[in-house]
Amino acid sequence: MDHPKILSEIIGIISELVLEVKIKVNKEGMSIIAIDPANVAMIIFKLPASAFSELNVENEQVLGVSLESLKSVLKRVYPGSVLIITKEENELRIEIKDKIKKEFNLALIDVEGEEKSIPNLEFTSRIEMNSKDFSEAIEDCSVVADSCSFISEANKFMIKAKGSLNSFKSEFSSDELNIQSEEAQSKYSLEYLQKMIKATKLTDKVAINFSSDYPLRLDFNTPQMELGFVLAPRVETED
What we know:
Elements: H1 5-14, E1 20-26, E2 29-35, E3 41-48, E4 61-66, H2 67-74, E5 82-88, E6 91-97, E7 101-107, E8 125-130, H3 131-142, E9 147-153, E10 156-162, E11 167-173, E12 178-181, E13 184-189, H4 190-196, E14 205-210, E15 216-222, E16 225-231
Helix pairs in contact: 1-2, 3-4
């Protein structure tokens, strides 16, 4: 890769949610599908072959890696660096070429669990908006509560949070975003959302899909990559 900084940033974001992943590499590119240990969030990442200046894969490879280790190595990548990743038996050789050539060797690991598949979800509310505005609303919610509600109407989208004493509401109209929506309301964990919105630095648009008391899907896509998250709703139970 001639521009590996984006891979470094994405691995850093994914490592907030999962510790170990299976990275699939084939002629179409690199991909990760993973679920966090609490089984609350799914990560969907695709880096197409066009993102690589060179991609040589004879047969599809599935690489089990520790994200903490990989993140630490990729932090050593700087703008202008060239990144070369080679699989050698039970390890990855990672070369970083800039003024000085650096070489790291990371042991491949066995990642437990079956191969994950992307769930087939059907949503009633589809919203595309400025990713910075979305990030700000999530951070505002976290000031007053540990969860927030996404509420949609025909031409309106709201994010609300209510704590024991304080509350917050952010309201967006169809003038500010692209909205295709029915009435829907669902509550989600702010702890997870705060980790997911770190992807807003990758793109200026976020696609938000949800339904009433239904999983949320967030997509931060660019022509160079696809990064999505699925988050289970928080369902309140009464004693």
